[in-house]
Amino acid sequence: MIDLLQRTVGRLCTGTALGLVVLLFMMAESQAWPVPGAPERDAPAVSAERVRSLADQGDRDAQFTLGSMYLLGNGIQQDQSQAAEWFRKSAEQGNALAQTSLGAMYYLGQGVPGDHGQAAEWYRKAAEQGEASAQYNLGNLYLLGHGVEKDEAQAMQWFRKAAEQGMVLAQFNLAGGYAEGRGLPRDDREAAKWCRKAAEQGDVTAQYQLGLMYEAGRGVEKDRREAISWLTSAARKGFEPAKTLLLKMGVDSSK
């Protein structure tokens, strides 16, 4: 069985960037979110001028939307510095997505000087408001010791908070913590439980790992049929390790 933590660490080390990808999707969606005085969601997108007008009046949601428009270049010329400025205005008024966005920009050094300590500070503000992407990213900082003192137990606590909200990457990372006793007591059953939650959301790596757990009888009762089912799910999404393992098991995943 391929070590679950080995696969997890690869995800953790890129976790903040992955969290930003999730966040960017949210921000892209935000272009259709209603802001005060804007049309309903199924109406045409709000113009940059209208958003700026509301942002200039101090509306924190409009400030966040304007920041995301600058970051993505949606309806306005892309400008990371302007994005950071508007995220900051919104974040200082308590908008959790803006706080998370600003944290990500500090972490990556985009639009602001790179500063892991500032990233941790803004992630924490959003995480304490219950924002799952911030909880996940703060967990990564604790795991890696970026901007905070390395603390695997704290990392897993934040991953749990995000995982309980259904964030698939956090669920997989929590499974890895249980699988290898990293920041948590080792518990194969808990590892399998959280791996299943991620797998059921379609996460290909979790599907592969859950298949391995069924094949090895680790944390679950050994079940070749279940193993093949989960490995096939991963293989049909193009996950090569699953295809290779199925061939070794004498199973053609293309059928």
Automatic annotation (TrEMBL):
InterPro entries (UniProt xref): Sel1-like, Sel1_AlgK, TPR-like_helical_dom_sf
Superkingdom of source: Bacteria
Family annotation (PANTHER family): ERAD-ASSOCIATED E3 UBIQUITIN-PROTEIN LIGASE COMPONENT HRD3, SEL-1-LIKE PROTEIN
Name of the molecule in the record: Sel1 domain protein repeat-containing protein
Lineage per the UniProt record: Bacteria, Pseudomonadati, Thermodesulfobacteriota, Syntrophobacteria, Syntrophobacterales
